[in-house]
Design goal:
Distance between the termini: 93 Å
Number of helices: 5
Strand order of the largest sheet: 24-25-26-32-31-28
Shape: rod-shaped
Strand content: 35-45%
Length: about 425
Amino acid sequence: MMLEIYLVMTVAASAVSQEAEEPVSYTQCTEGYEYDPIKEVCTDIDECALVSDACKGGMKCINHYGGYLCLPQNAQIFVTNGDESSQPTDPDPQTPLNPLNPTNPQNPQTRTQSNHRGVAAGASQCLPGFTLDEQNYCQDRNECMLSHYCMHRCVNTAGSYYCECKDGYQLASNNHSCVDVNECDLTQPCQHQCFNLLGSYICQCDQGYELAPDSVSCVDIDECAFSSYMCQYVCINSPGGYSCVCPEGYQLQRTRMCQDINECDTGHECREDEMCWNYYGGHRCYPQNPCQEPYVLTSENRCSCQSTSQGACRGLPQSIVYKYMSIHSERTVPADIFQIQATNIFSSAHYTFRIKAGNDGGEFFLRRFSRVGAMLVLTKSLEGPQELIVDLEMITQHTAMNYRSSSLLRLTIIVGPYPF
């Protein structure tokens, strides 16, 4: 819309005639004029030429007697001499213009000026967004101070205002309300999972990952570095998870435990005359008949001395029983590991138990728990794999018959290579 301004220019004949009749001797002029010593009169000051930023907000400066006007760039100026005809003039006139009010012409000593918003003092109405002050000047109206036009932030401008929203929100179609921005759909900022919040969003990672310092990327969690107990044997980290592996001779039980494989049940290479003995982490083959002369096999794993030759069994144990057992490596000590007990019990007999061989390092101790039995105690932790053979002797003393006999239990202990 084009703004049209009509200015009425009247010839100050009376002022000229007064100067001719009554010469003025003073040299000081009112504000907006300056004294011309050659003509000896007060002439108008062109503020538009003197002040480079006389008008703000993109307004253009129009000089007139005693002041200037700040008008929109599209305003048209019409200058008249009091008659009905009028012609548009250049926005920057070469000749001074009279003040705004055509019905009340002002003399050169009356100042008419405008504020920075471009509407002159004495105006009856201001442009939209401006209001008259006490001195009849048009001042910008701060809409942001008058009312809560905006939901979040209001920004005042010359003659108007606009609304802004906080981060995570955007202006609604009414340009005043703020609605949430769903960043998850708009920009997909998260590497894995995105959850929208009012004014923001939050990222989450899939299982096995954790948020990086930037709060949007996901990095793998090294579960194996958390603890040495994540796996019973070896922990192998992988993207988003981990896995446990077991050594040879073991199989994975559930997710982290290792269980011994019984090769004697699943398959072995023992001969027909051998027996397969499984231990923790492996197996071994032992003769089904371990008896050596002068002993003969009388029952499973039992050898008895029944030689017909005179004196062949003298000084030897009456019987030797072969037993096998497995223990874990690094087993906690002290630990009861094997029990020996008399099978034939006589009321008049006295029984004595001792470790006859296989305890050179002091790894074992024989603790008696009853009249007819004793317990083999492990006193030193053993590391596998290794095999130990311990001879446990039981001596029977028949007090009534003055008879003494002995029997031997040959215990083979296989220590596994691992503590499980």
